[in-house]
Amino acid sequence: xxxxxxxxxxxxxxxxxxxxxxxxxxxxxxxxxxxxxxxxxxxxxxxxxxxxxxxxxxxxxxxxxxxxxxxxxxxxxxxxxxxxxxxxxxxxxxxxxxxxxxxxxxxxxxxxxxxxxxxxxxxxxxxxxxxxxxxxxxxxxxxxxxxxxxxxxxxxxxxxxxxxxxxxxxxxxxxxxxxxxxxxxxxxxxxxxxxxxxxxxx
Length: 202
Fold this sequence. Notes:
- The chain has helices at residues 7-21, 34-45, 72-82, 93-105, 134-146, 158-166, 183-192, and strands at 26-29, 53-56, 60-61, 87-88, 110-114, 150-154, 171-173, 195-197.
- It has 202 residues and is of the alpha/beta class.
- The strands form three sheets. Strands 5-6-7-8 form a four-stranded parallel sheet.
- Helix 4 (93-105) packs parallel to helix 5 (134-146).
- The longest helix is centred in the N-terminal third of the chain and has 15 residues, at 7-21.
- The radius of gyration is 17 Å and the shape is globular.
């Protein structure tokens, strides 16, 4: 449900109306806090708010020690900043299955996973993050197929991007920062039906 009307709620609703007024009829929300995103989605779906159709992924997955897993205090503060829980940290295949079942029950359109091996914003340059294994990525893919869901990955560096391609995710968000995709990468993407959703700026 929408919280009491204040600046951020008003701005979100304004953004929805503005997007629709400019011809944007569908948006994909990758990894937004459930209450805020679902609140807007329900208002739009029930014709109480003008806005584009929202296709949410809700809570994303990253391994313990992976991107966004800082420490228990900072992780809890992130929930306060972003308006709710946005990340789950599965330790094993059993956890992955449980968390995917949760987001499916929440009405997710897709399953989002983080595949980053180093910091994007700040942090020491020699810092490294844990990433899901190829087996775990394949398990996410298999569970998503069971629930007829897409899999989207966040991968700004080539190591994670290639892991995403091998795992046959449906899409990779952004472009890589460390090196360009090779012809061999492109061929495997075609073979595995993997798309890139680049970040565009005007």
